[in-house]
Amino acid sequence: MPQDSFDLDNCLKCSVCNTVCPVYAAHPEYPGPKHLGPELERLRMEGLDADTGAVEYCLGCHRCDLACPHQVGVSEMIARAKGTHRKPAVRALRDWWFARPGLLGELLSILPAVTNFFLQLSPVRLLMERLMRITARHSFPAYTHPYRARAQKRVGERVLFFPGCYLTYNRPDLLEKVVALLACNGLAAEVVKSGCCGVPAAANGDLHEARRRTEKSLAAMRTAVEAGVPVVAACASCCHQLKSGFGGVLAEEGAHAVQAAKLAAQSWDLAEFLLARANDGLLNTHFHTLRHRVAYHAPCHLESQGIGRPWVELLRQIPGVTVEDVNAGCCGMSGTYGFKQEKYQVSMGIGAGLFARIGELQPELVATECATCQMQIEHGTQARAVNPVEILLEAYDGKAF
Questions:
Q1: Is the pLDDT of residue 383 over 80?
Q2: Helices 172-184 and 270-279 meet at what angle, rounded to 10?
Q3: Is 222 left (phi over 0), alpha (psi -120 to 50) or beta?
Q4: In terms of CATH architecture, what is 285-397?
Q5: CATH topology classification for 6-84
Q6: What pTM does this model have?
Q7: Residues 22-37: what's their mean pLDDT?
Q8: How many CB atoms lie within 10 A of CB 140?
Q9: Does CATH place domain 157-272 in 3.40.50?
């Protein structure tokens, strides 16, 4: 939500935000959201130099916002501070690229086989670590030819599907599965062609790029939103961005802010949307019986929407599927955060509790809708991580994924 100066007076200095911060618990030198948010915001508003490299360590998980008893917009204050933070040249260049996953996707998917070959080479990854401070210990997701919408007539109730960068450039097959899943429920999905939602740009301190992505997204969906068409996102981060009015990026830009608020009111998490249809008796429940033992991990940006665990409720309706809600906190990946050399150990420390819990459960599959959570879980455990869309679609068509 857009924040104003009155938020500072609402802060009681109770430190509840610090108690729920994953970084504060895992990184002893991190001063915490209370200090980086409202305490330093007072100095920033007076024009005093309060720049600190500690703002780079904020995950942007929004747990501090949820915990605050007076709804102080702590994470938004820190995000604005990231936008004015002065970084060393190498990290600034690296984060410029990380802020533009759509541009990276367009470039790296020109010859995806060549891209994937080189990204797997140890010398290349060590060179990236040395020159760009990108850790060599994390594997990059494979790229493929990007999704291109095919002209075809779709039958059913109209919905917009906001795919995000990962589904477009790394998993267009999963994008098609989301469209098929919606079709199984009588919904005709139109894939939005707007590119990135802007979360990576804001997370990497590039507020200009975040604003540019926001404006492009609003323009791409303007007509449909005005017509009252619901907007669905399968990525928790994309959905949080849509529901939050793009994180206050356009808070002071009247017409855009009004449109962002209208879009926010019509935006749904995919599982939330399907569960709402189930509650109205509209969900297709003609399921095959499966045999899956699933542990479900809720991404931080799903929790920050305050909608519970809709995927857990949906998957438990499938005969033969058992689902355990892991409920062990943040995985520590946070988009590009875990790829950064200086943050890798912090990232893994944050996810340690989750990794241990998954090890105890020994599930056949770990389900989570966040792509980078899947990467981190597979990196930190021996488990196979999948998107819950794949399990639900298997229950409809009987085809193993």
A1: yes
A2: 10
A3: alpha
A4: 3-Layer(aba) Sandwich (3.40)
A5: Fumarate Reductase Iron-sulfur Protein; Chain B, domain 2 (1.10.1060)
A6: 0.94
A7: 97
A8: 16
A9: yes
